[in-house]
């Protein structure tokens, strides 16, 4: 239990810093954005935004930063993502991929070898990503090494998740959907830990994105532009 004890000790500092920050959100939340992150321990989901305000960001996470789930009604936008858009007045959804994503790597291996040696729960997740990444693989440039291929597919996966949100009738009209990549492997030009904007409302062309969103221009960067 040493690890849990250490985590709880860390919570002491959180308590001291945050004790007065819940006054306005104890009974209601109106988050400005919902983020869909990969549940990777290296992806610091609130810290990456410099967020220290409860109620500002509604954070969802799963392996592969997927926005969909399978139900008896078919594949639908996950309730985790949909809830703040439907019930809390949130009008911005941000899909957050990251360099070197293990889920994307596992899906790439499953596609290229047709072998998945994973427990059922992980196979289920790979099964949700596979139909999204298969078309991406077909369009990637030839001669890419494994690491570059995976990072190209990370970007493509973000695009596909953005598209799923934009095409869903369950997502309220007027919702802005953005896609970003969190980089800690030097996959982009920039500092480790930077977020790079790769997609806004389906637009992927960096020059168009910079023109339409000059306030984001310094963070717009793509590996794959097709």
Automatic annotation (TrEMBL):
This is carbonic anhydrase. One of its GO terms (molecular function) is carbonate dehydratase activity. Its EC number is 4.2.1.1. Residues 204-216 have a biased composition (Basic and acidic residues). Belongs to the beta-class carbonic anhydrase family. SMART domains: Pro_CA. Its cofactor is Zn(2+).
